[in-house]
Each structure stands twice: as C-alpha cells, then as structure tokens.
Amino acid sequence: MTENPSEMSCIPTGPSVPDGSDALPLSAIGWDEQVEEAFTDVPRELSPGRIVRVERGHCVVALDDGEHLARPTVHVGVGDWVGVRRHLDDLSVQAIAPRWSQLTRRDSRGLLQFLATNIDLVIITAPADHLSCARVERETAAAWDSGAQPLVVVTKNDLAEPGIVEELRTRLVGVDVVTTSSVTREGLQQIAQALRPCRTAVLLGPSGAGKSTLINCLLGTERLATSHVREGDRRGRHTTTSRQLVAVPGGGVLIDTPGLRALSLSGGEGVAHAFPDIEQFAGECRFSDCDHQHEPGCAVLAAVDSGDLDPGRLANYRKLQKELAFEARKNDPLARAAEERIWKIRCKAGRQLRRHRGR
After folding, report:
1. DSSP 3
2. With 90 as the cut, is the pLDDT of residue 303 above it?
3. What is the model's pTM?
4. CA 192 to CA 217: how far, in whole Å?
5. Residue closest to 178 by CA, chosen among 160, 156, 151
6. How far is CA 173 from CA 136, 152, 168, 279, 343, in A?
7. More confident position, 27 or 350
8. In CATH terms, are 102-256 and 275-358 the same topology?
9. pLDDT digits over 158-192, tens only?
C-alpha cells in the first residue's frame, strides 16, 4: 500500500470525554496535529467538533460529549472540523476550520455539493459482478482532484468474471487495487491497515457496490442498512440516503455516501494524475497541441498501435478531456470565445478546400 508522506500520527490532544459518557473522544474521529493546527483560525470560545451528517436545515456534529443536532450558519460538509457555539439547548455551527481536501460534484442546478471534506483516502468501490473500468478511471480522477489519495476496492470478488480484475489493474496506473469479499472476508485487513493511524476515508461508487456492507464488516456490526441488488441488471437500490461519518473500532474514520449515477469532474489535474501514462506519451508527440486523433508523429497513437496503451483507456481519456473542455467553455467566456474562433477558422478552411477541389 502506498504511504501518504504527509500522514500525521494521532495524538490524544482532542478534548477529553466526560466520565461515564459513551461519547468517543475527538481523537477517535480524526483529531490530530493537523486538525489542531487548523483550529488556530477558529475562535477559542467555540467548542471544537466534526460534522457527522448533514440534513436539510440542520446537521449532526460530534462534540466531546457526544453527537448533537446543530444549526449550520455556514455551508458545511460531512467531515468538516467546526467551531460550535452552545447557548442552553441551542447549538449552532459558527466557523469551519480550513479544509485540506474536499470531494465535490455539481448538482443538477450546477451548484457545488460537498461529498466529503478533510479526507485522506477516497475508497473507490467497484463491484466485480458489473465492473466498469471507465467509471473507475473517472472516479480515480475525481479522487486526485479532491486532494486525497485514491484506493480502488473491488467488492464481491467471489462473483468476479475471470480476468476482469487483471484488466482493471492493467488500465490503472499508480493506484492500488484491493479485492474484497464480504463472504470470504478477503481484503478487509488491508483496508483496515490503510485507515490507520487516524485516517479519514470516503467511500465512492454506484448503488449496489457494497459500500454499506463493507463498512459493516469493518465495524463488526450491522450498523448501516443494506439491500440486495436486482437480479436482472445487478444494479443496487439506494440503501444509503445521506452521507454519514463513522469511526472504525480498529482506528480510522469512514464516510459513507449514497450511490452516484454520475460524477462530474472539477479540474484537469485529476485527469492528468489518473492517466500519467498518456500524459507521458503526449510529451513525446511532434506537436505540443496534439489532440491524439489523426496527427502525424503522435506518440499516443503510436503507443496504442504498439500495444503499450489500452485503446479503451485512451477513449476514456478523450471523453474526460472533452468534458473538461466543455465545462471550461461554459464557465469561462474567454475560453468559449477562443473555441468559437478555432471553429470559425476550421469551417473557413473547409469551405476553401471544397471550392479548390471543385475547380
């Protein structure tokens, strides 16, 4: 397993638990030196806590004496370290400590939505019974964009078709792949080790991928609801309806998320990290602005021809790059105008070529 060089060890500096309370110390849900340093920007009169769940109009925050309902006065996400003001029975979230990572997406209205914040790992769950390499590559790019490290976990490995996991490992570059099974308990120890010490992971994947089952196995109890997949297409139902944070008894924190049908990308750096092999080949192309389509001297196309690059991986790379370009044009008038100028030049050149051939 690849180690995170910035990883910090947990220290018992978080607020203590009152005697006789069943509450967890904040160190059990991620409080460490990094969090303590981030809290220097939070007013000292506020109580430190971490957002466990976000509902419409309120949130659940873990404090030193347990979990409480609170009113958010700022835009919080699950995983945020926050400052809470107490007034009798009323709790309100007044401040957010600076985030060092955040996994986001755009909703149907184009608004930014926090899936998880202050995460060290993005555990991408890929069900072996309907595994999509293209989807895993997209989610890997989103994980790199978040500022966290991706870890691909193939669930239901006892149902895997021959060769499917090997194909995924071949297509992914620089990302660890762990195979798991809730039936045989394969791979669970590797995931538990990746969470220690004091690391926070968010689970990402489609409905029916086994995210809640995986968490239950790591917790050693049926804490989260699960359901069977449909027999026809092996798709799952939305058992998890909201994001929530839970502490793993052996160490570490997990954030469960509802299954996502689509995940938009937020930046190009994640795609570059997810496809380092293609980026390396692209650096050897004859033209610096090569689109890797039909250009002469394209090292990327040569790598496909020689068998050094999976053509399906290149096709997915092109798709994600087009998506990023579309988002850039949509949100940046200058980029949109530049793209329009390029197409005008191409259309004019095409008309001139047709007239020349018609002579």
Report:
1. -
2. yes
3. 0.79
4. 10
5. 151
6. 12, 11, 10, 12, 34
7. 27
8. no
9. 888 888 899 999 999 889 999 998 888 889 999 99
List the structure tokens of 168: 């995924």
Residue 240 has pLDDT above 90, yes or no: no
Domain layout of the chain by residue ranges: 26-96, 102-256, 275-358
> Exposed, middle or buried, 352 (CB in 10 Å: 0-12/13-18/19+)?
exposed
Report d(CA 11, CA 33) in Å as an integer.
7
Q: Which CATH class is domain 275-358?
A: mainly alpha
Q: Bigger pLDDT: 3 or 208? A: 208
Q: Calculate ∠ Cα 242-244-246, nearest 5°.
A: 155
Half-sphere exposure of 349 (CA within 13 A, CB side): 6
Residues of 174-201 as b/e, b for ≥16 C-beta within 10 angstroms? ebebbbbbbeeeebbeebbebbeebbbb
For the 26-96 domain, the top CATH level (class) is: mainly beta
Which pLDDT value is given to residue 349?
A: 64
Instruction: Calculate Rg over the CA atoms of the chain.
Output: 23
Which CATH fold topology does 102-256 show?
Rossmann fold (3.40.50)
